[in-house]
Amino acid sequence: MTIKITGTGRALPEKTVTNFDMAKLVDTSDEWIRGRTGIAERRISTGDTVSSLAAKACAEALTMAGKDAEEVDLILVATCSPELLLPCCACQVQSAIGAHQAVAFDLNAACSGFLFALNTAYAYLQTGLYQNALIVGSEVLSKLIDWTDRSTCVLFGDGAGAAFIEKTEADEVCANGRTAGIEEMVMGSDGTKGMVLACAERTVSNPYFKETETIKPYVYMNGQEVYKFATRQVPACIKEALDKANLTVDDVDLFVLHQANVRIIESVAKRLKADIAKFPMNLDRIGNMSSATIPVLLDELNRDGKIKKGDRLVLSGFGAGLTYGASILVWG
Ligand code: ACO
Questions:
Q1: Which residue in 80, 88, 89, 111 is the catalytic one?
Q2: Other CB atoms within 10 A of residue 144 CB
Q3: What's the pLDDT at 2?
Q4: By CB neighbour count within 10 A (0-12 exposed, 13-18 middle, 19+ buried), where does 50 fall?
Q5: Which of 19, 58, 89, 258 is catalytic?
Q6: From atom 35 of ligand 1, which residue's Cα is the shortest distance away?
Q7: If phi over 0 gives left and psi between -120 and 50 gives alpha, with beta otherwise, what is residue 273?
Q8: Closest ligand 1 atom, residue 155 Cα
Q9: Residue 266 and residue 212: Cα distance in Å, rounded?
Q10: Protein residue with its CA nearest to atom 21 in ligand 1
């Protein structure tokens, strides 16, 4: 069986907010933000929602795949910032694009969300339950951020990315001898470190009980703990996936990592002893969009012709939960 990504798409808000704009809001500077994170600007919603961005990205992915929305079997939206708790964003997307035959639900694994959704869809396709899936990472993090907190507000942006994956019964062998599809995957979670990166929802309040201790409903982050977790766990899980597949770092053409921070990505490359040129980045232009970073980067690379049939990609996500994972994929 072969799994192929036959379409990708993305949607970003029009409004660009530079580091110089941020410096007008909080006590920060372009030099500090660029130096610590690699981010120069980000896109911020002026009305776009998680579902509207997701629907646009899905429509692009379906057009590239040459599929009608009616042909979609499964829609999985990874998000931690939906505009509604009920219904889920995937159902909103299903309605917006007219994918009436699809089963649709959301999945929240924060910045690892797209990767977890890809692996979940892959498992469904493997069982034979579905033939294809639309996988989406979409976030409007700007509404979860305390815009007076300089330690977090400079990091994030809004946007969505989507991929359409299809199954073929027979293996598809590429010209370089590699078989297209997902070769290996590793996923992990560590709930004991959950409060290192967190954001509260509404608290319990009903006629019988009212929660007195409340956490602010904004993103809270212990940056140094997240940095330590990411720089240790990401290379470890990539190595584990490569070992399981009997591959080495040299067998990989591109490492498509969650775009949190340029220093994290550089450290991962160093720990893996991999060429940093194999780690494409776009966070300078669009910041950290949590679950949307991997599919947006994938779409940029795909549309720019930077991924060829037979290329081996490692996709790796990490984030709140804490969650992390790596999947090895040969592009078909
Ligand atoms: N501008 C200027 N100064 C700032 C800013 C800012 N935007 N933010 C914090 N500072 C100040 C702090 O107040 C502190 O000042 P003080 O020494 O006077 O108290 C000083 O800078 C150092 O603060 P630290 O928090 O220690 O800064 P650090 O060097 O750790 O850098 C950063 C912060 C960039 C967040 C770093 O911890 C990091 O890279 N962490 C990784 C986490 C990450 O990238 N998260 C992304 C989201 S999570 C995810 O996607 C998985």
A1: 111
A2: 17
A3: 81
A4: buried
A5: 258
A6: 223
A7: left
A8: 46
A9: 43
A10: 151
- Please identify, by atom number, the ligand 1 atom nearest to the C-alpha of residue 319: 51
**Please, are residues 186 and 325 in contact by the beta-carbon 8 Å criterion?**
yes
Please, which pLDDT band fits residue 171 given cuts at 50, 70 and 90? confident
Rounded average pLDDT over 231-258: 97
Q: Does residue 319 line the site of ligand 1, with CB under 6 A?
A: yes
Nearest residue (by CA) to ligand 1, atom 11, is 151
The whole-angstrom separation of Cα 119 and Cα 8 is 16
Q: Confirm whether 58 is a catalytic residue.
A: no
C-beta 111 within 6 A of ligand 1: yes
83 contacts: CB under 8 Å, gap ≥ 6: 49, 50, 51, 89, 140
pLDDT at 215: 75
Taking the C-alpha atoms of residue 182 and residue 177, their distance in angstroms, rounded to an integer, is 15
Q: Which pLDDT score, from 0 to 100, does residue 139 have?
A: 98
Top pLDDT among 292 and 203 is at 292
Q: What is the pLDDT of residue 142?
A: 97
pLDDT at 91: 98
Answer yes or no: pTM beyond 0.85.
yes
Stretch 295-309: mean pLDDT:
97
Distance CA 20, CA 33 (A): 10
Q: In this structure, what token pair is assigned to residue 34?
A: 């660029």
C-alpha separations of 320 from 61, 79, 219, 270 in Å: 27, 12, 10, 23
